[in-house]
Amino acid sequence: KLHSDLDKGVGTVKYTLSGDGAGTVFTIDETTGDIHAIRSLDREEKPFYTLRAQAVDVDTKKPLEPESEFIIKVQDINDNEPKFLDGPYVASVPEMSPVGAYVLQVKATDADDPTYGNSARVVYSILQGQPYFSIDPKTGVIRTALPNMDREVKEQYQVLIQAKDMGGQLGGLAGTTTVNITLTDVNDNPPRFPKSIFHLKVPETSHVGSAIGRIRAVDPDSGKNAEIEYNIVPGDGGNLFDITTDEYTQEGVIKLKKPLDFETKKAYTFKVEASNLHLDHRFHSVGPFKDTATVKINVLDMDEPPVFSKPMYTMEVYEDTPVGTIIGAVTAQDLDAGSSSVRYFMDWKNDVDSYFTIDATEGTIATNELLDRESTAQYNFSIIASKVSNPLLTSKVNVIINVLDVNEFPPEISVPYETSVCENAKPGQVIQTITAADKDLSPAGQRFSFKLSSEASNKPNFTVHDYRNNTAGIETRRNGYSRRQQELYFLPVVIEDSSYPVQSSTNTLTIRVCRCDSDGTIQSCNVEAIFLPVGLSTGALIAILLCIVILLVIVVLYVALRRQKKKDTLMTSKEDIRDNVIHYDDEGGGEEDTQAFDIGALRNPKVIEDNKIRRDIKPDTLRFTRHRPPAEDNTDIRDFINQRLKENDVDPSAPPYDSLATYAYEGNGSVAESLSSIDSLTTEADQDYDYLSDWGPRFKILADMFGEESYNPDKVT
Fold first, then answer.
1. In this predicted structure, which of 30-39, 112-121, 366-375, 526-535 has the lowest mean pLDDT?
2. Any idea where the domains of the chain sit in the sequence?
3. Are 215 and 231 in contact (CB under 8 A)?
């Protein structure tokens, strides 16, 4: 209610209201100033309103007093129940937890004014879920109320929680929510086999590594707490089988480690242990977390293929063994109760198998072709055995046949086949070490022997020293060798092996004589090098050869110019071409030339005919150049001239007219006789050239050439 002191109650004052909620929530009586609420108020929506009021004169409309402001507060009443804004709740707690184990805390919210009365004072309680859980009335914390709750007995719990305001007094408003609680698993249960004995039947033909059966132990736990490990307890059959865990089903898978044989053993018995992988130390007192069961396996008899007595056969045969020779046998048996007969045949894959045959009944292997170890040293093929009662049941085995060597090739000298010896070699000097090679497969301890052939053993040039370790040395037997006398020596060496039958061969070793320095280093092995001066370098030799070539070119050019000059002179002759006298324009020999163009020289019986080229025509080519024996008398001279006449008559290059041909002789020779030794009656061996060494350095090369040891052809090897 609003009232102004200027209001006398006569109706001259008017009250107005403005501000928060004026006209919509609140209204004022203009005459009395009473304020009324025109609709319901909600504190939770708006707890207070700020309004302004003023008194004005009815007639003048002027304010009688200043505008005043006031606040209207909405007083709270308990009109809101508590609410669980996060509900419903989901919680979990491990099984076997002790009493009072924390589970979850819930919280309810009341919209009423907590500062006014008990409208917002909430109290929690459990309407459903006892006696398993409890809740703190003030905090809303839920805890376990029973010990050893077992997940395997009951896993899920639903708890109904109530929150009531007014401190839980009568008349208070309440709200509820649901809490779903799950007991989580702990490893509190060991694995257990549902039965103590498992029976399995396994065919004897089962493959190694294959699964032959499954067993399972039951563990009520879940997750990793239910993971089981299986092991075979050492004992009967434990080494033949293995067991693993199927990670999806937690079953024990029994696998075969070795082949089974019904004829050897028909049944096996062993124990299998199942245990947890992840243990909880809090439950060790419960007992061992493992269990044991017995597995009995019965082997089933099956029709099996034949079995060879060996996993592989190795045989040996000498090369060149006659066709049809038996070299070995394979054996296979049917181990089944029926014991069927076995047939053998070769597994034809390539042409190699055609070298051998096998007896279908006995299994003997024989040669079918001649074998050559140098061509193929080893054969590898397969033999198949099948049962007569069931040919589809077969087995296979590998056969290796090694071809043994027969001594059929003689040993030969290894490279090199040529060696050298120095001219200044001393007796007993080793110039080459030789070895031998044999195409045959040399067995352990194969020995080769070396010796000279019988025809060379008596010659004093070289010898062979056998070191008895499959090598030999070529040794000199002379003091020095001469390339001028003999450049090459051929040494026949006989080599024998130690196999049976003994094979031998004669190998010729070529020995070249070379010029060496004092240290034995070879300087030259060429024949041309014999006549080269000692001490010249390669550059000097090249320079000398170049000078010689230049001189030869100059000589050739000079001779060509002289011939050209003579030809021009001959062709410029002004005389009649039929004349018998030809003008040569040559300078005479002087006063001492008494026999120039003397026809009397033809009558000298001791003159040797010298076939001259005709100079009355152009000498294109040399034709019919022949050497005649010396004329002994006039008859021979006449026959000689007649013969030359016939030759000129048939010569196509001769002119068709008579001409004068002069046949001159050398004469009776020098008074001092010839220096040539061609016609000498004495041999080189009879000459003594030691005096050449006394003639000085100009005759050093001749002294070296003719002053060496005499050549003896009988000593050549």
1. 526-535
2. 13-73, 83-184, 197-300, 313-404, 412-524
3. no
